[in-house]
Structures are given as structure tokens and as C-alpha cells.
## 1
Amino acid sequence: MSKINETGEAKNLANFEILITYVIGFGAIYKPSRASISVGNMQGQLVKAKDVVNELHVVLASWSNAVAAREIEFKPLRGLSTRLLNALKATDTPLQIIENVATINRKLQGKRASAKLTEEEKSALAAEGKAVNQISVSQRGYNNMLDHFDKLVKLLASIPQYKPNETELKVATLTLLYTKLQQLSMAVVATEIELSNVRLLRNELMYNLETGVVATAQDAKTYVKSVFGAGSAQYKQVSGLIFKMAK
């Protein structure tokens, strides 16, 4: 899908509202046989399209907050993993077992699945229909970290010599942390799905080739041209209103 940016989308809706105002101003002369370009239908489309765009913005904000919350909580995980390894090394645990923990730690120290995005970049990707791909790449990285951390916690719990005095290093604390991280990741997935569904509805209402706002606007302009003529003042009023279809 090519770019469907928020600025262009807002412009489509603003121009559609202006078009409706002009059409209403034409009075009884504007009487199309096609119900889809009647004033009532166009007004209904405008309301629905505005509602779904507003909903998209709300869901996008929720998703951005969920992503930020997850990132904040995951950020210290690599440092914590190294501390856990060092705490184990300070015990009389056999070297082979320590190496098993070190192996998991090395996996947790792996690079991010994707470069960190600014909130503006996240919003732009979501508006362009690219958020799902970006989220999916990032999600794989977080899922891997969760999996490695779960293995690390369970391995430490099985080692008799691992009995740290520091609360944040205790197995019980680590287990609670894992549960929290898992919940945060699930929250991102839930908002990702919601975002995808709202975006699909937005695309249907705005860009359906037959019934979308852009298609209706183009048909209405064509009807005005047929009624008043290409050189008429009435057609000149609406001809300059641009509606861009997503490709």
C-alpha cells in the first residue's frame, strides 16, 4: 500500500465537507438519480469517515503508549541479566552450569530486532498502513527476549547454590518481573490488532473504489459538471477540490 498519511486524509475529509456545502447550495437543481451521491448519503459518509478517523487516532495513541510502556520495562533487562550471571559466578556453582546461564545471557544481549522509532515515526508508519509490519518485527524481538528471560529465571530457580540476598535478584522477584513483561507485550499485541482492524475500516470508508468517500466525491463532481457544464461557475466551485485515492 502506498502512503495514506494523516495530512492527506484530513484534506480529503475537509474537501468532502466543502463539496457537500456547495452541493447543498445548488438547491433543487442538484437531484442525482444515484442515491450514493445524494446529499443525505454524502452527509452520512462524512460522519462515518470522521468517526473512524477519530477512533484511529485514539487507538494509535493507546498503541503508542503500550509500546512505550513495554520499552521502558524491557530496557533494564540486559543489565539485569548480566547481574544475575555475576551473582551466580560468586557462588560455588559448577562451571558447566554457569556456562549454561552465560549462554542465555549472551542471547539476551543480542541486538534489537529493529531500530528505535520516535513517536512521530511510529504515528507516520501507522497512518501509512505500515505499522503492522513494523510492530511485527519489533514483536519478534521482544518475544525472543521474553523467552530467553523465562529460560534464565527457570534455570536459576533450579540451581541450589543460587540464593542471593538482594531482593531484585531473587527468583520470586524475577518471576514477578517476567509476568509483568509478558503482560506488557500482550498489551502491545492487543492494541496492534485493534489498530489493524480500525485501519481496515478506515480504508474501506475512505478508499473503497465504489463506495468510499473519495469515489463518491469524484462522482458528485462529475454530476455537477454534467448538470451545469464544464465552464460553469458551479463546476468551477467544485473542480478545484482535490481528492486523492490510496494506491
## 2
Amino acid sequence: MSKIVLIGANHAGIAAANTILDSYPENEVVIIDKNTNLSYLGCGTALWVGRHIDSYEHLFYTNKEAFEEKGARILMETTVESIDFDNKLIHATRANGEKFEESYDKVILATGSVPIAPNIKGTDLENVQFVKLFQDSQVADKALCDDSIKEVAVIGAGYIGVEMAEAVKRRGKNVRLFDAADTSLNTYYDPWFTEDMDNVLTENGIQTHYGEMVQSFEGKDGKVTDLTTDKGTYKTDLVIMAIGFSPNNSLGKDKLETFNNGAYLVNLKQETSLPDVYAVGDCATIYSNAIEDTTYIALATNAVRSGIVGGHNAAGTPLESIGVQGSNGISIFGYNMVSTGLNLAAAKEAGYEVKYTDFEDLQKPGFIEKNGNVKIRIVYDAKTRRVLGAQMASTEDISMGIHMFSLAIEEKVTIDKLKLLDIFFLPHFNQPYNYITMAALSAE
């Protein structure tokens, strides 16, 4: 029997805790989190704020009581100040200011990530808002209920920024979307796809400001009133910051080996550089099957998988991660985009000599009334012909197809193997010459 302490109770920490409690109930489990709640689905913030869903309650998929019923001891509103890794002691402070120590046999760091806060003037003004925690979403939602707030600026055109821009627009506000890059979503998608998303945004009334660097926020009576970039100044009643996230490594950065971005460096068992210390989720590295190397990909799905692996290993069962592909997706104003692995820019940055094949057609035969155009790109290694990535987009739901490409990357499938892949046909779903088949057949 071991005493296993988990620090952090969101996706990764919860997955690790459930793994231990369900499969190894003989262990003592202690969960520490500084928040008032656990298990908030941050990726659902835009759904609630944009009123796609009626309330936020179902964005919490578990609670403190569920873990206590399994035998865990839960310490919420408790801040871990430091960890003495040599003596296996955690120094923490309760909400009432009481300080205490918690011993452990093994510790799992699931401290997640923190929003990137740019060092620019005015970020401390009222109505300059980050979106990460449930409390952040409450503040943003309350602000959008204020009729005096009419002009909203969203900083960052990644997944969260684009989703929040749509959500704010659905609340009847004027929205400007800013990013230093030349297009939205450029981390996961090539311009052939992102330019379509940019058109969707502008057609739905969002003003896009790409290639603009925010320089400062100005205010009056402590509230933000204007935003200045290198290209102009804009009246702004509310700013939503969605630049991105960095790993929260404050508890171990001086003792544990870290990656180039500060994430805890872990092996396939989620073990850090110190014995009996594990790291899971957004605070840790992950192995990418696309680049065949360690990297950092902050996704909830990756957090859950790493938590499961870390939980088994902390409880004494050796288990290695099989790696990830970084599969992801987004749906904005009914336009759906999904991707996995590497886009062209990422593949070239990783040192690959790459080729790609594109195809575009209707999802279903032309005589089907409810139909939509589909775009697909498959990126592959020019030398080995191994599939490195795939991107798809449509007003139709084509999301399940990306799972096949995820497995193809994991299993090192070549583009040629896909050319005569057995893909079923039925007019209700697809065309006899399936877009996946046609894309593969079109490869050089």
C-alpha cells in the first residue's frame, strides 16, 4: 500500500485518481487543488457563453463527493506552496491561512497550464479578461450581460480565441479578432483551410485583424476603453485574452528536468527525473508519433490518457504510453474542421521532406438534398511515404474520419496503403469514390 498524493484536480488529475481508486483501492489517495471546484470542461466555456447550451452545470462531469465515496481524501481551496522532494513532504496552505505538511510515498503533478499573459500596458484594467477557469467564464458571461458593453476584442485566433469570438458574436456584440499571425488556427491547419475559416468568421460579422500586434490597453476610471496595436487604436469595452497557455511548473521547475518550454520532462510512464514523482496533463511533455519524439501538446484528450498511464504506474503496474498524434477539431458557425498529426509548416519544421495530396468534392452523391462540400489534405513523408498528418473540413460532420488518420500515423501507414482501403459506400453517408480514397489515389 502506498500513499499517493495528486496535486491538481482537472482532466489529468481526475483520470489518474479514478485509475488508482478504481483499480488499486488498497492505496491511500489524497487530492489537493487550490480551486473551489473540479472537473470543469474549459473547452465548453464558449458553448455556455455563446448560449449553445442553457447552463454550465453539465460542464462539470464529476465532483468532490464522488471521489470521497471512493475513499479519497479531498483538500479543495488548498494551495501547495512547495514540495520537499528529498523528504517527500508537501507544504500547503488552506483557505483560512492554516499551513500544514502532507507526506507522500508517490506524488503525481497535475498542475495543468496557465494563460500566457503578455507584458503590455493595461492588462490589469477591469474588463481585460482571461478565459481558463470556471470563475473566468462567469466573469466573461456577466460582462456580456451588460448592455453597455458593445465592443469586444478577442486577442488570439487559436482554438479558444475563435470559439470565444463566435460566442461573443452570438451574444449580439461587435467583435474584433486580433492575432499576430496572418490567419486563424495556423498551428493545426494549412492556409487552404484557415482561409475558409477566416471567410466564415467575416461572413458572420466578426472583424478579423491579422498581422496586428497588440501594444497596450487604455482605460478610464479603471476600466478598459481602447486597444492599441501597431496598426491602429480601437474602442473596446471588453477584452478577452486567448493568446495561449504555458505549462504550470512552479512546484518543480528548480528540481525536475524540464522541456524547452518549461514542461516537466517525462518518459512513457509519466515518470519525471526524480523517483516516485510523476507528471501528467498540460504540465508535462508527451510523445508524438508524428515527429517520433518528445514534444508538448496541451489537449484535454492527451491529459486524460497521460493521467491513466500515470495512475497505473504510480500504483505499481508498469504501463507505457503509445504516444499521441494531437488529434483535434473545431466547429464555428456550422463549419467543421478536424486535423491530426502535422500540417505542412509543422512537418517542415520537424525536418521532413514532405508532399501532400488534396481532394475536394461533395460529401454525398449530388442527388442527396442535405449535402456539403468536403476538403481533405493528407501530408506524407516524401522519402518513406509515411502519413504524417491529415486535415478535413466541411459543413457536414466528417469528424470520425480523422480517427482513421490518427491510427494511420501511429501505425506508420504509408499513403499508398490508403489507396485501395476498404471504405464502404452508401448514398446516405458518402460517395462511391470516397474523398479519402480519391485523395490517396491522387498522391504522387
